[in-house]
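Entry 14: structure prediction run for Putative AraC family transcriptional regulator. Input pasted below.
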Amino acid sequence: MRLDVGMDQRVAQSLDRAAEAVLRHVRNPVRAQALGLRLSHVGAPTELAYQRYTPSLSVVLAGRKRSIVGDDDQVWGRDRFIITPVDIPVVAGVVDTDPRRGFLAARWKLAPVLVGEVAAAMPGNGQPSGSMDRLGTWTPDLADAYARLLTLLDEPEHIPVLGPLVAREIVLRLLQTDQAPRVLAAVDNGDPVVPHAVRILTDRMAEPWSMSMLASEIRTSRPTLFRRFKEATSMTPMQYLKRLRLGEARHRIVVLGESAAQAAAAVGYRSAPHFSRDYRLLYGASPAADGARLRGRLRHGGTDGRLGPDA
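Run finished. Output tokens:
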């Protein structure tokens, strides 16, 4: 399904080039990794699945997917892109495929050090502030740079030289879009509130956190923590923690074979009914029923309960 109505033709042409490059190299993950890319090709819609997005630029090049981050529920395609500045738990799945290309996507690693270097060389860049749409809007220059990165897959001998140059240009072009504040949130040396909070919640998710406790741990105020975390992730810290816990619990039930009670306790739930209610709201089934279904799929080469299409 093409979503080019209203799209700048220069953007559409660049994304077409990028899509064809993904089709040619989607089965060559080693070459893609050399450029910081993870490529995905799916032939049919999929169910929603838990994923962990690391700092990245996520792009759908054909088809559409649904992404749920906290209370933000979006269906999007190649006319937009998503910046993930810090590790974020996401529930996502493919909802539409293109008749010719299926569902194509690419996720590009957003290196905080590189963002910091490029931002420091650009005049007039302040700290992230204000609110913005979680979906970014392409500019012709950004789409062109992105297409040139993808087409480097055809010239692996040039990747060591040209790859870093194109990567710097992509960051520069991103900093010229409406997503600049979210891109800058990936840099943890100037404003470490969000990266620090994410590390604590990820590494110590089983502890009984509250907003006050987390703010005290990272030595900031509750309003500052709430505002900056929401700007960067589209979630509050407690929503983020809940999604982390439910994703890890599903992995434990499906892959490790733990009972719902064991998984709930391991990720920090103190109440089994509370865990079951949250799990059913997110995944649409009880932990036991969902786990049995996914274990059956896993035995036949299906999902592992944690990952869905990579984009």
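Notes: The chain has 13 helices and nine strands. Will compare against the previous run tomorrow.
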